[in-house]
Model the fold of this input.
Amino acid sequence: MVLVAPSMLSADFSKLGEELRRVSDAGADWAHLDVMDGMFVPNITIGPLVVKAIRNCSDIVFDVHLMIQDPVRYVRQFADAGADYLTVHIEAEGDIPAALKLIRELGVKAGISIKPATPVSAVEPYLDMIDLILVMTVEPGFGGQSFKEEGLEKISALRRLIDSSGRDILISVDGGINRETGKRCKEAGVDVLAAGSYLFGREDMAAEIRLWKETF
Ligand code: DX5
Ligand code: ZN
Done:
């Protein structure tokens, strides 16, 4: 069954704690939290302080997506703030293997993310260091963009790579996920659907999540 991770980027930030409870009450498996530094991506969002502030609003899994340069500098703060998964970008500056190693040392699951232009082969050297691969199907930085079709082939290729490696690594997809693209990503082999604007735009988020989990 697919795991559903609503992206809090599309939540009402004036009441983030309440929005987090809404997501967890709607039956979501994880809450996807987008951290942007204005350097790796043009946008700026939240830091560890905000993650920590909403940590006590729900015990839902915190899937923290770091769109920041030199992520190793902030890994400890996000781990202390209560991240369950910490995902860094392969394209970010800085020592990415060191970041992944530190994430695991701190007892957090480690993820690596690839932007639309980055090939699947780029993750191969990291397979022993990660618990999750996040495939971006839009350019990171903003919610509400359309799904890039090329992502589907990358997901299938990753599925084959992971299955043949015998490793326990989840594949997640992020960007332009809705009922239609989500279903196609699941068919291509994805384990986790991160979706922002579509899920938050539904009147009944719970019904939508149920439908995804029962029919994909
Ligand atoms: C974009 C973020 C996404 C974003 C997705 O850089 O990583 O998590 O919230 O938003 P939608 O689902 O609207 O494309
Ligand atoms: Zn994200």
Remarks:
- The mean pLDDT is 98.
